Amino acid sequence: MSQPAGDEIVQFDNVGLRYGTDREVLRNLSFTLFPGSFYFLTGASGAGKTSLLRLLYLAQRPSRGAIRMFGADAITLPRERLPMLRRRIGVVFQDFRLVSHLSAFDNVALPLRVAGANERDLRKPVTDMLEWVGLADRMDARPATLSGGEQQRVAIARAVIARPQMLVADEPSGNVDPEMAVKLLRLFEALNGLGTTVVVATHDVHLLQKVPDSLIMRLNKGQLGDPTGALKFPPARDASPVRPARPSA
Amino acid sequence: MSPIELLETRITGVVRAVTGAGEQELVPQSRLSGPMPWVIAIMVTMTVIAMAAGLALRNTVVSAQAGLEGGITVQIVEPRAGERQAQSKAALERLRALPGVTGARLVPQDELDRLIEPWLGSDGGSASTMAIPVPALIDVQLAEQASEARVGQIRAALAKVAPAARVDAQSGWLEPVYDAIASLQWLAIALVLLLALALAAAVLMAARSALGTNRETIEIVHLLGGTDAQIAKVFQRSMGVDAIGGGVVGFALAVVVILFLGRHFAGLGAGMVESGALGWNDWLLLAMVPVAAALLAMLTARLTVMHALRKML
């Protein structure tokens, strides 16, 4: 997958992250994410996938290194400008993180309301999105009354409702049945087709095979394993990325 | 979805569209269910009562000063009744002839008897027949303020015709009373300020507690791109509603107390107390207390939340 120069949306340069005085959970990460690409982030439990995603959705600043996102220096950017960057990122949290006192409708509408959308304008897209994830009849249900799978679908609907430039999903298929998992991947692919960069953290190897044009980032003990160099910063333009095997017919 | 649920959903949608609700739902609201509205109600009640007391005292002073500003009392302190009477008459004539004197009257004997009755009793007869000589009193009204210099001039003018005359500005007698009232006024102002501080402290603690309770939600809203100002606005609005509710209740309670006390004071029949009655402008000022309390509560909530959020990424 060749990429045009200079339009990277994320650049990590020698990034490290440690919590407190513990050892680094992420070490020497250097990679670039391009618009319209589909990335899988894989690795064993404790490899640092969630920590890397937290850096990607600006919940955390690294202990060292440089990060550029959407052309801005995410390390030195004043915190009052962070919300504008965050609005360009959709996040599916591993534990869903739905707002407990809000209905499914209000949870999905949250990014639009935060962005200042008019109440009259958000009803249709939110309803459509809930219909798409199969929750049209659960719009007024609170998260506590939803099953794990339903909560996950609400979380996904909330992440994509505002058409983010980058979608970051932490184990999005963890609580859904295989049929829904495929359906969700199709949604991510559709978004990807519209130009959204998608980063999906998963340890489900079957999932990797379902998106043929995806790139894989492997995390191992906090380090990015990328033997081909496709994800290195600066990227090796002519190198072939690590591609999953095409799903067998 | 059942027809009832469908209808409910539609109604919710319409209400949302009409009221523009949404942002305020970011954080759970607990209006009038927590202690804050009641704390604010109590604060407003006490503030309004303290302020009403201060205003009533101010009115008393203003009214008394207006009445006594140009007042002078001339006492003819002469033990011999005949001489006293003669000097009183001469002084009265001299006073009436002086420029700037708008009125001078010899206080009648029966009025004098009534004045000294609380001290000497009524058994001994009238002041004129008592063994104890009681000075004659002349009540003088000047066109201008009874300044020290003016009193001196009058004293000099009376020295020849009534050497036993003692001249005093009436306002001077009430100087200690004015000082005491001024102290009470300062006390009322200090109370109002302390209550405002206590209100701000209570709001600060409530806002911090609400922030702690809703930390998870706030973090999510932050990660979805919510700004500090948006989040602060939710708390500010919530606190504002609590403060307005509490303020209205507190003000109503204070009005009842003030009217109750006013009726009792009016029953005393003392002129000075009656002159302290609150006017329309005073009531207007008191009505501003719940408004000020709401603004103070909202400002405190906003500053507290903004300060706390700055510690988050």
Number of distinct helices of chain A: 7
Main sheet properties of chain A? 6 strands, mixed
Overall mean pLDDT score of chain B?
81
The chain pair forming the largest interface, with residue counts per chain, is: A-B, 33 and 29 residues
- Looking across the biggest beta sheet of chain A, what order are the strands in? 6-7-8-3-9-10
Oligomer: heterodimer
Task: Give an overview in words.
- The complex is a heterodimer of chains A (249) and B (313).
- In chain A, 29% of the residues lie in helices and 21% in strands.
- Chain A contains 7 helices and 10 strands.
- Chain A is globular, with a radius of gyration of 18 Å.
- Chain B has 2 domains: 25-64 and 176-309, no CATH class; 71-143, no CATH class.
- Chain B has helices at 3-19, 36-68, 81-97, 109-120, 148-159, 170-173, 175-213, 215-223, 228-266, 271-274, 280-309, and strands at 71-76, 101-106, 136-142, 165-169.
- In chain B, strands 2-3-1-4 form a 4-stranded antiparallel beta sheet.
- Chain B starts with a helix and ends with a helix.
Keywords:
A: 249 residues; six-stranded mixed β-sheet; 7 helices; 21% strand; disordered C terminus; B: alpha+beta; four-stranded antiparallel β-sheet; 69% helix; rod-shaped
Protein topology:
The complex is a heterodimer of chains A (249) and B (313).
Chain A: E1 10-17, E2 26-33, E3 38-42, H1 49-56, E4 64-69, E5 72-73, H2 82-86, E6 89-92, H3 104-114, H4 119-132, H5 148-160, E7 166-170, H6 178-193, E8 197-201, H7 205-208, E9 215-220, E10 223-225
Parallel strand pairs in A: 3-8, 3-9, 6-7, 7-8
Antiparallel strand pairs in A: 1-2, 1-4, 4-5, 9-10
Helix pairs in contact in A: 3-4, 3-5
Chain B: H1 3-19, H2 36-68, E1 71-76, H3 81-97, E2 101-106, H4 109-120, E3 136-142, H5 148-159, E4 165-169, H6 170-173, H7 175-213, H8 215-223, H9 228-266, H10 271-274, H11 280-309
Antiparallel strand pairs in B: 1-3, 1-4, 2-3
Helix pairs in contact in B: 2-7, 2-9, 2-11, 7-11, 9-11
